[in-house]
Please model this.
Amino acid sequence: MGTFRGSDDSLEAEIATLEAIAKLRVRRAARDLKELDRDLAELRAERGRRRARSSIPSLTTASEESVTVG
Model:
C-alpha cells in the first residue's frame, strides 16, 4: 500500500475500518476452524468405530463356522 493522501481524520477512519474488517475475518476463520475440527473429530470417531467392528469377528461368521455339515 502506498502513501495515504487523505487527512488525518480520514486516515483514522480508514484504520478503524481495516481493523474492523480484520477482526471480522479472524472471527470467521476461527469459526471455520472450529467447524473443521468438529468434523474431523466426527470422522476420526467413525473410523475408530469401523476399525473396532472389523477387528471383532462377526456373529454370522462365528455361527457358520460352528455348524458342521455332514
Notes: The chain has a mean pLDDT of 87.
